[in-house]
Amino acid sequence: MGCPSFQEGLIIVFVVVLILGASRLPQLGDGLGRAVRNFKKGLKGENEIDVTPKKKLPPPDDEG
Hints:
The chain is an all-alpha fold and 64 residues long. Helix content is 55%, strand content 0%.
């Protein structure tokens, strides 16, 4: 049992797209990229990990 071939890789990608849907793949990639980045920071010995969200919510309206 070795490394998967190109055709097997395409089948795996197709199944992942079917299960998750094309709209969720960018979110999955973004989350995976952040996880890998934080893992590498942890290996380097940096103590702080950035967990702040990228998108800021607008301030609530104070009507009432």
